[in-house]
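Continuing from the previous page...

OK, I double-checked the sequence for Type IV secretion system protein VirB2 against my notes and this is the correct one:
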Amino acid sequence: MFNIKNATRFIGLIVCLIPMFAVADGWDQTLVSTGRSIRIGMYLVAGTIALVTIVWSGTQWMIARVNGDHSHSFMDYLKQLAVIGTVGAGIGLAAWAWQIFGTGNPT
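Thanks. Re-ran it with the corrected sequence; updated structure tokens here:
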């Protein structure tokens, strides 16, 4: 028996399944590009924070030298650089490992 409600559901299903109407031909690339943009943004934020901490440590060292109290020395500055280098190396190693082992594509 012909029913308007069932006909509308059937037409809706057909429209949803046709890729031209469902806009389903590029959704995965949209997700990949969005994920890539988020990753680059996270690298940008991490790099900015690293640069600010290095500048802040250098400023503390210069202020301590001017005041003559040696509360922040060159070794503290080097320790800050070592921490940032270690964190950066960890981030780089994680990105490398994800490219090799996480994607399933070794290239």
